[in-house]
Amino acid sequence: MSILKKIFGAQTKEEETMSNGNLNIGIILGSTRDGRVSPQVGEWVKGIAEKREDANYEIVDIADFQLPFLGTTDGTEPGIGAWNEKLASLDGFVFIVQEYNHSITGALKNALDFAREAWNNKAAGIVSYGSTGGARAAEHLRGIMGELMIADVRVHPTFSLFTDFENYTTFKPAELHQKNVNEMLAQVNAWSGALKTLRK
């Protein structure tokens, strides 16, 4: 029992969020490099998502877990267990995907490979950006998600480095993208709810 609950007899905001019966959706930042813009994109998506009030949304930053490269570790680093625990607590995902050499980042691929069952029978949406909207990276990610038993939804918001970013560094999306993001979130929530029944 938390100190606040013991003193005031009420739930903290975190406890209330976890007990409200909503699905838990993680917005996963797919880049860890210095100067990345994925936090801007992720927070923008989260702002839209929270207005829906149909799920609990949180940013999940791969960089916070300090994952080693797969194959260079004995698996005892605390970040590996924490990463799997975080994924296991989520019912669905929204991947913020940036395109590098026509594919996803090495950091995202590494993070995907460091879990297995925690991904299974869950749904995910993709929000991507790049010179061609990150479309090629997103298609690579769809293939990986299929192997991990993640059901990827159809609606896919894409952002251009040329028109949705100022000087390639400041995220300034056109207003028209909000509709696609909402449609993607609706599909993620519907599928996440349906797939949750398989994990009971």
How would you characterize the overall build of this protein?
This protein has one domain (22-199): Flavodoxin domain (Rossmann fold, 3-Layer(aba) Sandwich). It has seven helices and eight strands, in the order H-H-E-H-E-H-E-H-E-H-E-E-E-E-H. The chain has helices spanning 3-8, 13-19, 38-52, 78-88, 106-113, 135-147, 177-196, and strands spanning 23-29, 55-61, 92-98, 122-130, 150-152, 158-160, 165-166, 170-171. Strands 1, 2, 3, 4, 5 and 6 form a six-stranded parallel sheet that branches. It is globular, with a radius of gyration of 17 Å.
CATH classification class = Alpha Beta
Name of the CATH superfamily? Flavodoxin domain
The biggest beta sheet is recorded as: 6 strands, parallel
**SSE class:** alpha/beta
Total number of strands: 8
Domain count: the total is 1
Relative helix content: 40-55%
Q: What would you say the CATH architecture is?
A: 3-Layer(aba) Sandwich
| Mean pLDDT value | 91
Head-to-tail CA distance between termini: 26 Å
Task: List its salient traits.
single chain, 200 residues, alpha/beta, Rossmann fold, 6-stranded parallel beta sheet, two-stranded antiparallel sheet, 7 helices, globular, disordered N terminus
Question: What is this structure's SSE topology?
Answer:
Elements: H1 3-8, H2 13-19, E1 23-29, H3 38-52, E2 55-61, H4 78-88, E3 92-98, H5 106-113, E4 122-130, H6 135-147, E5 150-152, E6 158-160, E7 165-166, E8 170-171, H7 177-196
Parallel strand pairs: 1-2, 1-3, 3-4, 4-5, 4-6
Antiparallel strand pairs: 7-8
